Amino acid sequence: MLSPTVFGAGPIAPRVLRGALALLILLFISGCAGRDGREVVERASAPSGWHGERGQASFYADRYHGRRTASGETHDRNALTAAHRSLPFGTRVRVTRLDNGRETVVRINDRGPFVRGRVIDLSRRAAAELDMLGQGVAEVQLSPE
């Protein structure tokens, strides 16, 4: 029977084989780990060159509570989070409702909205802070935080 060798330099020690196998198993297991949202890095400010935008805000229906967002986090209707089409995940944005002046700061953790004219989808808590739960949609100004 032939014994395994490293580049033809002689038999491989069983201890080296066990170590290599353990390392491969560890790498495989870590590569299979699911995302739970904790990997998202908090950002202190919006990307340079983005100075805000104006449009309509809407908020998530309750049926999305507990579902995965595009960032891998679980949507929490009680958190101050939002969806934006292009801002990086973790970006903090000040949202000001134009007709009553109320404002809140949210963290982007999802993609959307996908309705023309809408610039942001807010969590239920953020919508409540803007006093827009009754209307469902409100005109807002987004600005860097």
UniProtKB/TrEMBL annotation:
Name of the featured protein: Endolytic peptidoglycan transglycosylase RlpA
Sorted UniProt keywords: Cell wall biogenesis/degradation, Lyase
NCBIfam families in UniProt: rlpA (TIGR00413)
Name of the top EC class for this enzyme: lyase
Function: Lytic transglycosylase with a strong preference for naked glycan strands that lack stem peptides.
Protein family membership: Belongs to the RlpA family.
SUPFAM superfamilies associated with the record: Barwin-like endoglucanases
Annotated PANTHER family: ENDOLYTIC PEPTIDOGLYCAN TRANSGLYCOSYLASE RLPA (PTHR34183), ENDOLYTIC PEPTIDOGLYCAN TRANSGLYCOSYLASE RLPA-RELATED (PTHR34183:SF8)
Residue span(s) of domain RlpA-like protein double-psi beta-barrel: 54-141
Gene from which the chain derives: rlpA
EC number(s) given by UniProt: 4.2.2.-
Organism: Billgrantia antri
